[in-house]
């Protein structure tokens, strides 16, 4: 099972919450966040980051289905 995580850099407001919650998965690139490249294994921290993003800029997809952010 692989996840794909994307960060919409237009929506990203650079709060850094994702880097605080999942520092091994997200980095700041200038004033915007950068997520994992390619597919990655399931990780609850990724879902937490997507849930906590104030701009709703992080999306987590598994097998073509959006699983994060969670409602």
From TrEMBL:
Residues 3-31 form the 4Fe-4S ferredoxin-type domain. InterPro entries: 3Fe4S_ferredoxin, 4Fe4S_Fe-S-bd. Gene3D superfamilies: 3.30.70.20. It holds the Pfam family Fer4_13. This is Ferredoxin. The lineage of its organism: Bacteria, Bacillati, Actinomycetota, Actinomycetes, Kitasatosporales. It comes from Streptomyces hesseae. Keywords: Electron transport, Iron, Iron-sulfur, Metal-binding, Transport. Ferredoxins are iron-sulfur proteins that transfer electrons in a wide variety of metabolic reactions.
């Amino acid at each position: 099972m692989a996840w794909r995580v994307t960060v919409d850099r237009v929506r990203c407001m650079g709060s850094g919450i994702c880097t605080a919650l999942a520092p091994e998965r997200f980095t700041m690139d200038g004033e915007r966040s950068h997520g994992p490249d390619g597919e990655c294994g399931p990780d609850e921290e990724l879902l937490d980051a997507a849930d906590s993003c104030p701009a709703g800029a992080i999306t987590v997809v598994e097998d073509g289905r959006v699983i994060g952010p969670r409602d």
